[in-house]
Specification:
There is one protein chain. This protein has one domain. It is an alpha+beta fold and 153 residues long. The longest helix is centred in the middle third of the chain and has 16 residues. Helix content is 34%, strand content 20%. The protein binds iron/sulfur cluster.
Length: 153
């Protein structure tokens, strides 16, 4: 097994979360497993602060807020709400420069929620034989690049 620089750096940004040592506060849940039956998605969140009703997703360094970052928070939101948690705030955190970016809730941005649902449907309907447009810029930064058969890099 081997990891690229991107993977190692990304892992370091999540280290305190993954080891659940980011905080000892019982109000903050760290790396909990989440699932949404409605959307057929699951995963893990970085942190959820019960008192602030806040989800935070950490990235090593955020230079651009990509749609994927926002959809990741949308997925976290829907899973947590379905599991019975209250979410009133969502935030991206850029570890290297210590910056935070507030993201509107799905209930506050109906257009983005609509696009999120369309994306989830496309993922569910995707077949491996379908045409796939490779984006060299994404491949360049992708942690799966060394394992990927269709990468252009
Ligand atoms: S390397 Fe492969 S998995 Fe990664 S973005 Fe490119 S095509 Fe997608």
């Amino acid at each position: 097994m081997y990891q690229t620089t991107y993977q190692t750096e990304g892992k370091n940004a999540h280290k305190s979360i993954d080891t659940k040592t980011y905080t000892t506060s019982k109000k903050v849940l760290q790396t909990i497993e989440i699932y949404s039956q409605k959307y057929g998605i699951g995963g893990k969140i970085d942190t959820y602060d019960k008192a602030k009703k806040l989800i935070v997703e950490r990235k090593k360094k955020i230079k651009t807020i990509y749609d994927g970052y926002i959809y990741q928070l949308y997925a976290h939101y829907h899973c947590l709400v379905e599991m019975g948690y209250e979410v009133e705030n969502m935030r991206l955190y850029s570890y290297d420069d210590n910056k935070s970016y507030n993201i509107s809730l799905p209930t506050q941005d109906t257009k983005r929620q609509y696009d999120f649902e369309k994306l989830i449907s496309r993922i569910h309907d995707y077949k491996l034989q379908d045409h796939f447009a490779v984006n060299a810029n994404k491949c360049n930064m992708c942690i799966y690049n060394p394992l990927c058969d269709v990468s252009t890099c």
